[in-house]
Write a structure and sequence with these properties.
Layout: H1 8-15, H2 18-23, H3 35-39, H4 43-59, E1 74-78, H5 84-90, E2 109-111, E3 117-119, E4 123-127
Antiparallel strand pairs: 1-4, 2-3
């Protein structure tokens, strides 16, 4: 682990802070923000958001990052809830019979297309039919009116 000037207490406070709480119990590693929705927000909100994004970029410019990401609209479900069509689409298989006579969990075991084993309660992402329900930003022409008034400040 690299050296840090941050105290262990401050480090723990940051790791358990509002961002961790915002993500809740999900295992998400990313926050995907729709450009269309952000461009539909009031200009003052956009200015605050851009300032925060720039702060984040500046704070971690020393960290190697991917040039681009591919985002796919999906639904999340447990492996045990996958339909036959979902399983075919994802390349998920189940063993036809137990590997040995003492294997009581074999019916609750799933394998993804890469051969990784998953339990029935593990989560799978199934690409959403029809793609993303939020329309493309269309070079800044798509506007979706926010439903509630925007609260200014933090």
């Amino acid at each position: 682990m690299p050296e840090t000037t941050i105290s262990p207490d401050e480090r723990r406070a940051r790791l358990d802070g509002p961002i961790h709480s915002f993500f809740g119990l999900s295992y998400s590693n990313y926050l995907v923000l729709h450009r269309t929705l952000m461009q539909s927000m009031p200009v003052e909100w956009q200015e605050r958001a851009v300032a925060l994004f720039r702060d984040l970029d500046a704070a971690f410019e020393h960290v190697e990052q991917a040039e681009a990401y591919e985002v796919t609209a999906a639904t999340e479900c447990e492996y045990s809830d996958l339909s036959d069509a979902d399983m075919r689409q994802l390349g998920v298989t189940q063993p036809d019979e137990p590997a040995d006579e003492h294997d009581e969990r074999w019916e609750r075991r799933y394998y993804d297309r890469d051969g990784n084993e998953h339990d029935a309660c593990d989560r799978a992402l199934v690409p959403r039919l029809g793609g993303d329900p939020i329309p493309h930003y269309n070079r800044g022409r798509t506007f979706i009116e926010p439903q509630t008034p925007v609260v200014s400040g933090v």
